[in-house]
């Protein structure tokens, strides 16, 4: 990212927070954070996303983010090729932060969380909050293709029907992602053809041809890219974004209170 090109925007607008991830080198975070804070007079919070314990510690030493987002491998879209699910990544990261004197940074959990049970689990693991991405692809306000949104609702068994690879970027002819990043998306005809030996050139040609079909190019035998996390199978309907937030928050609170009552009854 060329942060210099964005500085005028940060000067013009009082941005509440900027979320950074996927640098070519972790040291980039330090310069990005420094320039953002300088141009905003410290007003803009710097949120940084990491995917390993090692990254988390190095980022804290280099950039001292206001918020640390810990993303597990279940996340949809781009992330580290090699990571762990938040069930082990989050508590290990929290322990490492504490052991190294980083006591006060809020830590958010991301990756595979789409509803109340996932939120309650993440909070129990030590998260200060959670991030949901895939769930909001099925929000009524989501500005994505209808075919993509239909796939989010159709697909189930997300651990088996989504896959991490670089194919999506190759099909879209997108370059620039660090080599240690790939993306999780719903497995489609492009994946199956690649596994059968189809060349990238032919796969790209067929992808571009199907683009002309619009929303009809998604589905069981489609080639369109459907970025989604492994929690996609828990999403069954479109909902207003506000309802998703309210229902998820209330549901998580109910779960935590129920288990608290169960624990108290046994004391």
Describe the fold and architecture.
There is one protein chain. With 267 residues, this protein is an alpha/beta fold. It folds into two domains: 130 residues, Aldolase class I (TIM Barrel); 89 residues, no CATH class. 45% of the residues lie in helices and 13% in strands. It is built from twelve helices and eight strands. The strands form two sheets. A five-stranded parallel β-sheet has the order 1-2-3-5-6. Strands 4-8-7 form a three-stranded antiparallel β-sheet. The termini are far apart. The mean pLDDT is 95.
Task: Provide tags for this entry.
alpha/beta; TIM Barrel; 267 residues
Separation of termini? 54 Å
Which range does the strand content fall in?
A: 5-15%
Q: What is the N-to-C succession of helices and strands? A: HEHEHEEHEHEHHHEHEHHH
How would you name the CATH homologous superfamily of the largest domain?
Aldolase class I
CATH topology of the largest domain: TIM Barrel
Protein name: Inosine monophosphate dehydrogenase
GO molecular function: nitronate monooxygenase activity
Pfam family, one: NMO
Keywords: Flavoprotein, FMN, Oxidoreductase
């Amino acid at each position: 990212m060329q942060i210099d090109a964005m500085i005028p925007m940060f000067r013009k607008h009082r941005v509440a927070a900027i979320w950074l991830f996927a640098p070519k080198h972790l040291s980039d975070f330090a310069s990005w954070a420094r320039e953002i804070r300088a141009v905003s007079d410290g007003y803009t919070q710097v949120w940084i996303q990491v995917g390993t314990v090692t990254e988390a510690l190095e980022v804290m030493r280099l950039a001292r983010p206001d918020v640390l987002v810990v993303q597990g491998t279940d996340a949809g879209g781009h992330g580290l090729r090699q990571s762990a699910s938040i069930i082990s990544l989050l508590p290990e990261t929290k322990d490492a932060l504490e052991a190294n004197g980083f006591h006060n940074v809020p830590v958010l959990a991301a990756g595979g969380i789409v509803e109340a049970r996932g939120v309650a689990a993440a909070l129990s693991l030590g998260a200060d909050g959670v991030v949901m991405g895939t769930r909001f692809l099925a929000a009524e306000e989501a500005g994505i293709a209808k075919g993509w949104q239909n796939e989010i609702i159709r697909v189930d068994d997300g651990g088996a029907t989504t896959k991490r690879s670089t194919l999506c970027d190759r099909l879209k002819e997108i370059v620039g992602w660090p080599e240690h990043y790939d993306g999780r998306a719903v497995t489609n005809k492009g994946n199956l053809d690649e596994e059968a030996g189809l060349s990238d050139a032919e796969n790209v040609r067929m992808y571009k041809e199907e683009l002309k079909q619009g929303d009809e190019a998604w589905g069981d035998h489609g080639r369109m890219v459907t970025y989604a996390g492994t929690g996609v199978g828990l999403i069954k309907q479109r909902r207003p974004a506000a309802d998703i937030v309210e229902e998820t928050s209330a549901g998580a609170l109910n779960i935590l209170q129920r288990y608290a009552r169960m624990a108290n009854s046994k004391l």
